[in-house]
Amino acid sequence: MKKLKGQLCSASLAYIMAASPALAQDAQPAQAQTTPDNSREIVVTANKRQENINKVGLTITAVSGLQLAERKVTSLEDVASLVPGLAYSPSTANTPIFTLRGVGFNESSLGVYPAVSVYIDQAPLSFPVLASHSAYDLERVEVLKGPQGTLFGQNSTGGAINYIAAKPTRTFEAGGDLSYGRFNQVEGNAYISGPITDTLRGRVSVTGLNSDPWQYSISRGDKLGKQSYIAGRMLLDWDNNSGVRLSLNVNGWRDTSDPQAQQLIAIRPTYSAYVPANVLAAQFAPANARAADWSASVQDPATGVVNPATGAVTPGTAQSVNFTPFSNRRMIQASLRADVDITDNLTLTSQTSYADFDQKQRTDGDGSPFVTYDLYRNDGYIKTFNQEVRLANDPHRSFRWLIGGNVESSHTFENQLLRYFNSSNYNPNNLYINASGVTNKQDILNYAFFGSTEYAVAPKLTLKASARFTQSRNNGDIGSYTIVGGNVDKLFNLLGTVLGTVPFTPITIAGPYTLNDNNVPGQAFVRTLSENNVSWRAGIDYQATRDTLVYANVSRGYKAGSFPSLAASIYEGLQPVTQESVTAYEGGIKTQLLDRRVSLNGAVFYYDYRNKQIRGKFNDPLFGALDELVNLPKSRILGAEADITVRPVAGLTINGAVTYLDSEIQIGPAAPRNYNVLAQVTNFSGDPLPFTPKWSGTVNVEYRARLANGGAPFIGVSANARSSSDAVPGASKIAYVPDPASGAAVVRLAPGVTNPFVINGYATVDGRIGYEAPDGAWRIMLWGKNLFNRYYWTTVIASTDTAARMAGRPVTYGVTVGFKVR
Asked: How far apart are CA 673 and CA 663, in angstroms?
């Protein structure tokens, strides 16, 4: 706690002492404004300009900074809990996965683009992990639903999440809060903001959290799940009334939190004859979010003496190696925006950003204390540069237009070492292989040109059209390796000798061991994926009354293809997925009733989803079910959304939102990619899309009184509910049964489990109660999340011999004390 306080104080003090020109923000602060009747007018930047949310013909969920703070939103999972139709899932590689309205990419490799793009003040966080710690000191979060490819670029087939940072103020202001909660969680936030000179304003904010572990091992009793991170942001805004405005946003974070451990629920060995007896008898996790398991100190056969007669490790010679999961990640991003008024009617905007990310971590992939699927090494980096230039006319004109272009250059690298010496693949037929490594380097260059127009053809009628051309080039270089004692080099030299059609030089542990098209090892998989597309949108807005907007849109967006980080035995497993597309048809209404005390929004939509990207399986001729990236040729999503906000009396706000999604895979992949997660031939036609619950919804009720002295007691309750969904395609018809023909003659399931890859529906309730002093000078709040300690899980992950869940967090609660100085 002392360390955290010191970090927060040091960051604030550094700003006061240095006050050096760094710059930040939108040229024009996009804050929620108060209208004369005291209703809240929410201003958003969905069209890259400031507009009242009720005047924008798109489906948008916007949550204010105050709501985010009071509801203790600090993570990507928290953001997803606020938005119906938005699903969050962790992964084996500790990479977050977003799915919005059924559109997402359930792939855990570090260097893959998401289907839901994330931005901070319009600067892209191009890869999912970069956005891990952005939800602090915000004006609001905007979630734009549906393809956003024309203004926000490819890789937003599902939508876009925009973090809008709180901006530097024109008068001095400072504030912060300190929280203490369950698991000895200590969280601190602080900011300082104000003028530096007559033309320069600055703001520095920091956040940090430390907590004890929240998970415990069901086999040993030791613990995992500590949280420890710190993040900071420095903003500077400069203008001199000459028509030039500059904004700089420098932000970064460091996270050494433990990766989440999994909960073992099913065992189905690939080769039952060779799976160790203790693995077959492994303890299943109970229905308790805190109960899990992972590998710790383990006897590693790669360190032992090999019996030359059998190839097995001589008993008693292996050394103990630490396999306990850990993570060490850091990211820094800088974004410079310049707005230049060329004339009274033309503004040129340039936005330049660069992000640098690095990670070193180890994760457990099977939910057991045994090493059947552990990423002993999962290191990597991301370096991404983005430059956008656009020219726009006066947004108040009846004919509004915007043209521009952007270029992105990204370099990603991932180094994974998979260990599996307790799996059924560790057997004499496979020469006791136990360590498969892969390096995946991608050099990506994208450039695009875009334009957008809106024309008010009549006082109440506006026509809209926009398009973007994108050219993408991805140079992938994937190599495979093993370690001393890993034995993969020995096996693949043998396979090359038996299966190869050309002579080859035997490989060493450095590989690469993956068999090429001639069935011999020794060549890295080097390919170039070159793609282009045209995203477009056309629409119509009809302002039926002052408070009612009716809109209809047709749009198409694309998501780029990518290469997998997989330890594949043959080139088939390393093929990239190609770009996917979503053509969306949507109509909606936004209206305010009863003197704006009631706000009602609704939309219906249909998505034609082509070549959806998933991490699927193929039946490897050597090792059975192995991962592969796959395109689903054709799917569709039919849906509807509605939300209502009611302010029946002063201080009381009731909000409810619901999303209905009916998704279906219409045409599944053809042979040889038509395998389910167990590598069984299947037909996915008729199955729902993964991570797409049919129903999801939120309810939030809050009351804030105003006392005679100016103080404000407040209370709020929020609920988030979702129906069941599938973690993998066809999950509802995948049942674990013995299959002697494939070698899986033994199957065990946790009590109550029938279809392991189905995510059951759930509902959670959060609450807060507190008091804010006059003028916000100080405040105190008691809060709780998942108050009824509901057990639920967000994904189920298959490994070679097992399946395991990722559980949601248990009940957490605490107290927050804050202050503000002006």
From this structure: 21
Of the two residues 251 and 15, the one the predictor is more confident about is: 251
Q: What is the pLDDT of residues 197-249, one digit of tens each?
A: 999 999 999 999 999 999 999 999 899 999 999 999 999 999 988 899 999 99
Q: Measured between alpha carbons, how far is 588 from 640 in angstroms, rounded to an integer? A: 9
In this model, does residue 4 exceed pLDDT 50?
Answer: no
Distance from C-alpha of 403 to C-alpha of 401, rounded to nearest angstrom:
7
Q: Tell me whether residue 233 is in a domain.
A: yes
Cα-Cα-Cα-Cα dihedral sign, residues 259, 62, 702, 598: negative
- For residue 155, the model assigns a pLDDT of 82
Residue 254 structural domain: 2-293+325-821
Query: Residue 814 and residue 667: Cα distance in Å, rounded?
Result: 49
Residues in Cβ contact with 308 at an 8 Å cutoff, skipping those fewer than 6 apart: none
Q: Say if 307 falls within a structural domain.
A: no
- What pLDDT sits at residue 25? 31
For residue 819, the surrounding DSSP H or E stretch is: strand 812-821
pLDDT value at 38 more than 70: no
Give the DSSP per-residue string, 647-683. Answer: --STTEEEEEEEEEEEEEEEEPPPTTS-B-TTS-B--
pLDDT at position 17 is: 33
> Could you tell me which of 817, 794, 798 has the C-alpha nearest to residue 75?
794
Q: What is the mean pLDDT of residues 185-198?
A: 97
Give residues with Cβ within 8 angstroms of 724, minimum separation 6. 693, 694, 758, 759, 760, 761
How does 439-475 read in b/e, with b if 16+ C-beta sit within 10 Å? bbbbebebbbebbbebeeeeeeebebebbbebebebb
Residues paired with residue 397 on neighbouring β-strands, in sequence order:
none
- Categorize the per-residue pLDDT at 14 as very low, low, confident or very high, splitting at 50, 70 and 90: very low
3-state secondary structure of 732: helix
Where on the phi/psi map is residue 466: left (φ > 0), alpha (ψ -120 to 50), or beta?
beta
The residues, ordered by sequence, that sit 6+ positions from 38 with a Cβ below 8 Å of its Cβ are: none
The model's pLDDT over 270-324, given as tens digits with 9 standing for 90+, comes to 888 898 999 999 999 999 999 999 999 999 999 999 888 778 888 889 999 999 9
> In angstroms, how far apart are the furthest CA atoms of the chain?
90
Tell me the residue type at 531.
Answer: E
CATH number for the domain spanning 42: value is 2.40.170.20
The tally of domains found in the chain comes to 1
pTM over 0.85: yes
Instruction: Please indicate, yes or no, if residue 315 is contained in any of the structural domains.
Output: no
Closest CA to 793 of 749, 757, 755, 750: 757
In the sheet that holds 97-100, the strands lie side by side as 86-89, 97-100, 103-104
384 belongs to a structural domain: yes
Q: Is the peptide bond before 672 cis (omega within 30 degrees of 0)?
A: yes
Token look-up 């203004």 returns 151
- Please report the pLDDT score of residue 736 as a whole number: 80
The pLDDT value given to residue 317: 92
Residue from 556, 691, 533 nearest 107 by CA: 691
* Residue pair 821/173 in contact by the 8 Å Cβ criterion: yes
Q: What is the mean pLDDT of residues 407-429?
A: 95
Q: Report how far residue 419's alpha carbon sits from residue 370's, in angstroms, rounded to the nearest whole number.
A: 10
**Under 8 Å between Cβ of 504 and 451:** no
Give the strand pairing for 200-211 and 159-165.
Answer: unpaired
At residue 11, the pLDDT reads 38
Q: Say yes or no to pLDDT of 170 above 90.
A: yes
C-beta separation of 87 from 76 below 8 A: no
**Nearest of 324, 308, 327, 299 to residue 228 by alpha carbon:** 327
Do residues 99 and 107 lie in contact, with contact meaning Cβ atoms separated by under 8 Å? no
Q: If you ran DSSP here, which 8-state letter would residue 684 be given?
A: -
Q: How confident is the model at residue 788 (pLDDT cuts 50, 70, 90)?
A: very high
